[in-house]
Amino acid sequence: MTFNSTVSIKDIHAAKKILQRHISPAPLIRSYALEKVLSLAADRRVWIKDYGWTPTGSFKLMGALNWMANHLEQLKDRPVTATSSGNFASGIAFAGMEYDKRVIIVMPESAPKVKFELTRSFGAEIRTYDIATDHLTGLRDQMAREISEEENALQASPYDDNDVIAGNGVGGLEIAEELTSIGRKVSHFVCPVSGGGLMAGHAIAIASHFPSAQIIGVEPEGADDFRQSLRANQRIRLAKPQSICDGLLSYDVGVNNWPILRSHVCDSVVVSDPQTQNAMRWIYHTHGLRTEPSGAIAIAAALFRTIDFSGDGDVVLILSGRNVDIDTFDHYIKE
Predict the structure, then answer these.
(1) In terms of C-beta density within 10 A (0-12 exposed, 13-18 middle, 19 or more buried), how is residue 24 classed?
(2) pTM here?
(3) Are 282 and 175 within one domain?
């Protein structure tokens, strides 16, 4: 299947130059423990790209920085607004701090406290809504429109934007360049999918360097719009996605992301919330990392064998973020 992508590997290389001015790459960690769990052959390895190490604790910072840098002329003195469950909020807030731009965020009132604190720490203003009734009221998007009109703000999409996709793709480029430099090849690349901005950018980079790699999405059981979309060969919108993975509850994948995902992603698997909680516990006890549910879901897919990893090459898993309140984390891993 082919398509005319509006985001290319060249765009990702350009975004890399921008990101290098602000942040260092998130680490790519070899997981000996997962290699043992998966019973891989001795010459195969498992790698975890851990975006919890970014200044905002998630991958969202990459797309936000690239978006901000590419909209400076359009912005001038205008503020930026965005809707976010929390991670893009802190990402665009950090970008606003770096470029001296006012940022106004619309967030669910039930978002983790740590995401509110991070976003405010970078100088952003926050306005909240009730996510439980948003599928009925549409208040989130209404608030964003009002901010755009009343404040003359420019709205940034957390995922459905070519500059965001290219910025996120820098992480995939880092993975590809690091593994290529040590003579490794990739058989499987596994990444969470919500709106699709993370996967779209990474898929372009991974497919460019490892064309035979299987690129596989992971979604919560109650928020599998992308899996349904792949099967229907058209974008499917969910009425009310539900999961403990608060960062993976978009209603559908983005218009700009869909053709990239459809071209490069061979499958999407689902993980239950209890499986995600078990993965959070495993990561903590095995690697000493406290991760948010959305961040653990790709590792959950590996631990619970929802993916066939047979083949010849390394496995790469994305840990997308670590922003979870301590009491919530303790509850999930003890439950």
Answers:
(1) exposed
(2) 0.95
(3) yes
